[in-house]
Structure formats: C-alpha cells, structure tokens
Amino acid sequence: MLGERTIRTLLQDGLRAAPAGETEILLLSTHAALTRFANNTIHQNVATSNVEVAVRTVVGKRVGASVTNRLTPEGLQEAVSRAAAIARVAPEVPDFPGLPEPEPVVAVASFDEAVASASPEWRARQVEEVLRLAESRGALAAGALSTDVAEVAVANSKGVFCYHVGTRIQFRTVVLKEDASGYAERVGWRISAFDPVGVARTAVERAASAQNPRDLPAGTYPVVLEPYAVQDIVSWLGYAGAGALAVQEGRSWMNGRIGTQALSEQVTIWDDGCDPAGIPLPFDFEGVPKQRVVLVEHGVPRGPVYDTVTASKEGKRSTGHALPRAWPEYASLGPIPTNLFMAAGDASTEEMIGRVQRGLWITRFWYTRLVHPRDCVVTGMTRDGTFWIEGGEVAYPVRNLRFTQGYVQALASVERVGAEAWLLGDRFGADRVPRLLLGAFTFTGVTEF
Amino acid sequence: MDELVARALNVAQLRGASYADVRVVETTEQGITVRNGAVAGMSWTEDAGFGVRVLADGAWGFASSHRLELAEVERVVDLAVRIARASARTLREPVDLGSPVIQRGSYRTPVQTDPFAIPIETKLDVLLRADGEMRHVAGVTATEAEMVFIRQRKTFASTEGSLVTQEIVESGCGIEATAVRDGEVQRRSYPNSVGRHQQTRGYEFIVEQDLVGNARRIAEEAVALLSADPCPDEVTTVILGGSQVALQIHESCGHAIELDRVFGYEAAFAGTSFLTPEKLGRFRYGSEVVNITADATLPGGLGTFGWDDEGIPAQRVEIVREGIFVGYLTDRQTARRLLRLLGPSRFVTGESNGTARASGWNRIPIIRMTNINLLPGTWKLEDLIADTDRGIFMDTNRSWSIDDRRLNFQFGCEIAWEIRGGKLTRLLRNPIYTGITPEFWRSCDAVCNADHWVLWGTPNCGKGEPMQVAHTGHGAAPARFRNVRVFGKR
After folding, report:
1. How would residue A94 be classed by pLDDT, with cut points 50, 70 and 90?
2. Rounded distance, CA A28 to CA A69, Å?
3. Residues 6+ apart with CB under 8 A from B343
4. Is the CA virtual torsion B126, B128, B130, B133 positive or negative?
5. Quick count: other Cβ atoms within 10 Å of Cβ A138?
6. A89 and B48 in contact by Cβ < 8 A?
7. Where are the beta strands (DSSP E) in B372-443?
C-alpha cells in the first residue's frame, strides 16, 4: 500500500506540474491475489501489484486524457504533459461543465487488515477444505478465492482531494456431480464471518439435489429466483438504463416510466456507495461524493444516477456516479450505479416455493445479454440447479432452459420478496439482493443437460 | 531489460523452481471517441510491467508487478515460488509440460503506415466527419465514432532457453447510429458492432474502412428500422452476413475447442465444452462444406503473432475438416494431458499448437482463440440469395448468448431483410435466431467465396479469473443455414 500521505504528495506534485487550465489526477493502486481451482486441485494461483494514474486536462472546453502506470516523477510528468498536449488539439466540448468543485466526502471504513495480509498459504488452506468437502461427496469443485486491496484517490486543480482504501474478499464455486452442478458465491470486505467452506457446502448440496434432471418444455412459468439470479436482473437494470446518459438519449427502460407504477410495489432498488453493507467507495472517479440514489421506490422508477456532464445538461448536481473517463472503454459509457441494493421482504424460501402450483426454482442465470434496451429484454440460460415446483413443493430437477424476458416486466410480476439478502460481485462493484417470487417468466428454449 | 529478465530466471532457479518464464510487456494505446458531435474521450495509455510464472513442487505460481526494478523482480519471484508451493498443497499430479521448448527470434506486425505516426488531428477529422454524416440523417438520436490504436512490445524468456521479442500493432475503428421513436430503439453499426472492427495492421486499415463513406447509409438504415416490420416467428432458411458468421464461429466453435474448457479448468467461469475428447476425429460437427482452421499466421488477424506466451511458434491447425471435428486449441500442459488420455494419433501429438496467450503482464497465459476461420466456399453472395426462394438475410450482431457447454445459442442481429423468390425484399427489425451448435452447422449448405471473405476482429473476448480480455480473429464469408428458428423481440 502507498498510503494516503504518499498519494497526496504524488498527486499534488502532479498538479503543480500541470499547465494552466484545469487538471484532474486519479490514482488506482491495487494488490490482488486469486487462488483458482478446478477438478479438486488448485490449477492457477496468481498475485499482482499495479498503480495506475489517469490525468485529465481541460484547456477552455478542450479535454485531453492520459494514463500511465509508471510511477516515477518523470512518468507522472509525461502523463500530465501528454494529457495537456491532447487537450490543446482537441475540439471544444461545448457543454463540458468543467471539473467538479470540492465537496466534503464522508469517510467509510471498508478496510480489513486480515484481508489485506491474507497469504497464499491461507487461501490455499481455505480452498483445500473446500476441495476435501467436494471430494467427500463424490463431486468436483471449481472456483476461485480472491483477496484484494485497492486505494483510490482523486485530486484536481480546484482543490478536490479524496482518498479511500478498501479490501475485498470473494469466493465462488461451481460444484459438478455427475450430470448436475451447484453454485455458490459471496463477496465482502471483512474476513470475519467469511466462510468459503460454508458457502461451498450449499453448492455441494445443490449439485447433489439436481441429479437426473428431466425435460421441461419452454413456456411461461412462475419462478422462485435465488439471489444469484435476482442480481442479474438488478445489475442489468442498473447497467443498461439507470444512468442519465441512457435516459437522455431515450434508450433506457426508465424512459416513459419515471413516476409511474411500472414495477411491483414490493420492488425498491437504490444505489449507495457509502453503505458498509456493500463494497463502499464514498466518491466517484471525478472526486464527487456518492449520493444514495433511489432508482425504484415501491415499484415507481424515480430517475437515474448522474455524473457532472449529464447533470449539467439538466441543471442538476452530479450524484457521484462517474466512471473513470480517461480509459477509452469508459469514455462514452456515461454514469453507472455500482453499489446496488434491493430491499428485502419477509418471505422465507419455503413460503415462496409453497405459493407456486406449477413453476420453477432457479439457482442462477448465465451468459445473459441485452436483446432490447427499452424493456431491458435479456436472454440467457439457467444453470447450476433448476427445479420443477408442483403443488407448492420442489418436485424434481429439470434440464437447463433458455429465457428471453423483459426484466422490467419480470419485476412487475414480483409476488413475494425474500427476507434474506446476499452481497454478490458485479461487473463494477457489488450488489445486495434477496430472493424473489415472480408470477411469470418466459423460457424460449431447452437444452439436453 | 535483459538484466531484469535474466535476474528473474536466475532467482527462480535459485529458489528451487523446476521451470520459470518471465514476460515483460509494454503497451501503448491511443483511443479517440466522438459522441453526438463532440469528443467524448481522447486518451493515451501506457502500461508496462512483468510477470513471472514458476513451477515449484510440481505446481504453478505466478506473480507480477508494474515496477520494472531489480529489487522488485526478486520480491515478485519469491512470491511466485511461495504461491506455487501453496498450490502444491492440493496437487494431484505434477504439471507436465513435455519436452523443453527453445525458441529465439523476433517478430513485428507488418504495417504499411504506422498508426502512431498519423497526427491526432487527422484521425479526429475522419471521426467528426463520419459522425456529422450520421447526424445529418433526420431521426437519428445518438451517434458514436471511435478509433483505437495499440502497440504492444513483449519479451518472453524461459529457463529452458527461449528468448523471443515481439511487437504487435493493432488498428481499430467503428461508427454507430441510434434512432429512437415511440418506444422503439434501433442501432446500426459499421464495419462491425460492439464498438469496432480491428486488425493487426497499420493506419491503412482505417483508410480502407471508409467510415465517412458508410456513415449516412447506416444512419438511414437505423431510422428505417424504426418503421420496419418485426421479424416473423418461424423456422426458415437464414443467410448470415460475414461479421455474424464470425461471431457464430467465435461462440459456437472457437470457445468449444479450447482444451482447458474441455478438461474443466474453466468450469466455474467460462464453462466447459460439449466437444469432449472421445469426439476428436469422429464427431460430425458440421456439413461437408464446413471447414474451420485456427491460423495464427494469417496476415492482419487479431490472433496473429510470432510466438504465443509460452514461446510456441504461431501455427495453422485444422479444427473441422469437411464437417468432422479434428482439432483442439492447446497449450503445453493440456496437449500433454490429451496425449496421456487418448494416446498418439494423427490428431494427438502431445505438442502445443501455440494458443496460450495472456492479456497483459499481470495475467497468466491461458488457451485463447487465434484466428478461427470458416474457409471460403464457392458461392457469390448474389447467387446465394438468388438461389434462396424463401428465407431471411441477417447481418451485424446485436446480442449473443450461449450456454456453458456451447450448445444452445441465441443471437440477435441489427438488421434483416426478407428473401422472397431469390431477392431481398422488405426490411425486418429485431431479428433473432436460435439453435443447437452441431445441428446448426450441419444445416449449413453454402458458404460464400473468397471475394466475400473478411478477417474480422473481435477485441473483447472475456475468459479466465482474474478476467482476461483477448483479441481474436475470425475469417468468414456469408453462409446459408437451413431450418433455423427465427423470431423477433418478445
């Protein structure tokens, strides 16, 4: 770890070296380790250290950016000079609002020394226990256990400086047993109460109960979704339409639905980068404090998240959801919510299954892709344990199904919400979501397994 | 650099590693994105570091760092060896790499025009003019145009005696127009979707794409799609455009032939494969017109290089010959395992065919597609359409999904036309087709000829944990498939 003091000095030196105009420097420092296993053995085991510095320079309304991981004074100086050189030849961005002004950022603790210092031997011991468990049940386990430390800091020439250090521990496994499989995953930032073996046990049990799956025709059925599947829905709604750019361009599922009862009254979704129940980062990559933004309140979409560019177009303040725009892959994505929460309800799994006469209990969705943005129509597969429910009881496992379903319509049909919510890894951050009982979900294809 | 590499290998051996390799990788990337008439991003990215992979106590360890310093080399090698010994706690059998591989030399992507020598103003001018052409079309609500240029220099050295250096250059570009009306959203992209088309070539590749000359057409198509009829729900004949055939190859063949997936190494993330070892040399994957190769020697492909990241020379390998599955993508470890499993044959040598690639200095090499190609057939596209009485022509991918064994797929395209009486007729929106991989490829009865064949680039292939994004190539021409289930958005 570099530490706040060292990083502050580095960034201030960088800003001092910057030419006239506005300059922003973002620093990402990571120490990441991952122990990967398959076929009941560790087969890949890696660690990496990196520090990336991204510079954005604004000359008038011209913006240039550069990124380097060369952390010498010369490396930083070159990055600053290059960003300025790009800005000088860039055309003006007429509606560029300028870099953000300083705002107070409330620090959130999300650092656990035990995660930061987790050794290769510790990770191997945890995985070894998981593998022993799988082997004792005649199954093969595959998956990964990772422990990471990340420092994020943003400074700009208007006086912004914010720093956060956080840890992350993540475990996931697919357990294979004959013609079936099970899945389990958890993410967190504390090592205490993180129990890879306990998590893996649920996957082993799911694989055992999913043996000898039967065929089921495609069709529309009520479904009980485990949190893994619910997270896919919440994540797509966040990524593909809960950012202001998508709404401003008219391609969001929120368009035409803001303020209307578009989803079930039981659905409330918000983004909160400051809640230690998630993986917090209390400011965005422009150094703006993250606001708690309610995206859907009792089934009513309330509006998207903003960065400074999209907020200025509507005369609003950024909600603190900017991505690191200096990287080409994020340059035109717009703001995205990365710390999603879905309100839990009071239903037990048994109660939800008990309410289904003829339907499905689904562990997980896989390889989901957006088919059409306005209803957030998504296609994907079920995986790692799909079961037929009949007369309020789990009857037997079924082969995997392909679905093509509007996720907006899916959440409009929520009948019950589970009492328990799990924190699960997402493409940018992590989401905390419960189980759901949906009245209707459309499956469009079948498989042989 | 030489001292750093030598120190890494020496320290690894001193710490007891039975094998070690080190890769030093320096990448420069220039990205320019124009959105809705304004610059959304202009950036220059430099990334450098080294990774050390060791075998100790029969197991793998890997560590890496961005600090290219001798003291850091020692720390990283120590860590790699320690990680390997931790891995060995669960070892079932020691890693077998086969015979030593000793390669020496250098490779550079041949380019006519160094893309980094072209002024940024010239690139911006092309993007802004293309963007402007699209925005002139009434009904277009959002536009985007982008260029990406990458130069990667890497050195690979191993304790077996290999030392190779490479410089790979990539150029990519793309434009897209979005039209929105009455709750309908339509997008058209050129030359390919998901941002861009890309090759290992110089700026001449960008010039050839003629973004400006194609901008108005795709914008007009996006607007026309808003009022097009929906794709019908039926089983019919489908002709796929070349870029969609490339995507079909990538998802249903390229991933399925990765031998690490077959052996379960990717079971928890990327998935496994239906192409299990007993099928090698005997399974009918496709019809007799289906011939597929993995060819890392093709000029211009995103999977073209001199050596892979285990120091194995680039190769051309048969994957499907006249419809029969005959080859996997292998690395050193999986090639040996396949040999132990099946014994030697004309399909199994125990030697890697050179597909282990890492996305950067901080990732381990894993099996990745090189250029996976459907070889050209004999048809002219206009003749193929004329030969089709009833069907649908679909082009440019919009969505893609396939199950974890690579069997059940569903792909959406940006645009389609109905075929009636051998002619393209009405425009269709939101076309989707679905199928089961071998059934689909067995239904292929025609592939267009070399005049229509393009080496498409896929710069966004995800696999592995931690995630690695690979750049792969896919040579493809339009092809016809019978009895395909199609439908529109539900």
Report:
1. confident
2. 9
3. none
4. negative
5. 11
6. no
7. 372-374, 390-402, 408-420, 423-429, 432-436
Q: Is the peptide bond preceding residue B191 cis, with omega within 30 degrees of 0? A: yes
Those of residues 405-434 in B touching chain A at CB distance below 8 A are 405, 407-408, 410, 412, 430, 432, 434
Q: Which two tokens stand for residue A177?
A: 């047993």
Cβ(B411)–Cβ(B244) below 8 Å: yes
A245 touches B33 (CB < 8 A): no
Which residues pair with residue A243 across a beta bridge?
A: A305
pLDDT band at B490 (very low <50, low <70, confident <90, very high): low
Handedness of CA B102, B106, B108, B110 (dihedral sign): negative
User: pLDDT tens digits, residue range B250-277?
Assistant: 999 999 999 999 999 999 999 999 999 9
Of A320-334, A364-378, B338-352, B433-447, the poorest mean pLDDT is in A320-334
B124 to A381: CB separation less than 8 angstroms, yes or no: no
Distance CA(A389)–CA(A387), nearest Å, equals 6
B66/A contact by beta carbon, under 8 A: yes
Q: What is the mean pLDDT of residues A310-338?
A: 93
The Cα B262–Cα B118 span in angstroms is 44
> What pLDDT does A331 receive?
81
Distances (CA, A) of A373 to A12, A47, A160, B222, B487: 42, 38, 36, 15, 17
Q: Tell me the shortest Cα–Cα distance from B193 to chain A, in angstroms.
A: 14
For chain A, counts of helices (H) and of strands (E)? 10, 17
How many Cα atoms within 13 Å fall on the side-chain side of residue A165? Answer: 15
A440, burial (CB in 10 Å: exposed 0-12, middle 13-18, buried 19+): middle
Q: Give the torsion through C-alpha atoms of A331, A335, A336, A337, to 10 deg.
A: 150
Three-state secondary-structure class, residue B228? coil
Per-residue pLDDT, A313: 96
Residue B264 has its nearest CB partner, among A48, A142, A377, at: A142
CA distance A218 to B473: 35
| Residues forming beta bridges with residue A100, ordered by sequence position | none
Instruction: Give contacts of A44 with chain B, Cβ < 8 Å.
Output: 60, 62, 265, 364, 366, 465
Segment 267-326 of chain B within 8 Å of chain A by CB: 267-269, 271
For A240, B233, B391, the CA distances from A151, given in Å and listed in that order, are 27, 52, 56
At residue B174 the predicted structure's pLDDT band, cuts being 50, 70 and 90, is very high
Residue type, B355: T
Q: Give start and end residues of each alpha helix (H) in B88-172.
A: 120-135
Radius of gyration of chain A (CA): 23
pLDDT of residue A193: 80
Residue B427 has pLDDT above 60, yes or no: yes
Residue A89 CB neighbours (<10 A):
14
Q: What is the pLDDT of residue B10?
A: 98
Closest approach of chain A CAs to the CA of B420, in angstroms? 26
Amino acid, res. A109: A
Cβ-based neighbours of B131, under 8 Å, separated by 6 or more: B34, B35, B36, B37, B143, B144, B145, B175, B215
Q: Tell me the pLDDT of chain B averaged across its residues.
A: 97
The residue count for chain B? 490
Residues of chain A found within 8 Å of residue B59, distances taken between Cβ atoms: 42, 45
In DSSP terms, which residues pair with A161 in a beta bridge?
A155
Chain length of chain A: 449
Map tokens 């030392």 to a residue.
Answer: B163
Residue entry with tokens 């468990």: A133
pLDDT in tens, A22-72: 999 999 999 999 999 999 999 999 999 999 999 999 999 999 999 999 999
Kindly indicate the confidence band of residue B34, based on its pLDDT and cuts at 50, 70 and 90. Answer: very high
Q: How do residues B61-87 score in pLDDT, each as one tens digit? A: 999 999 999 999 999 999 999 999 999
CA-nearest of A434, A290, A145 to B83 is A145
In whole angstroms, what is the distance from residue A8 CA to residue B209 CA? Answer: 45
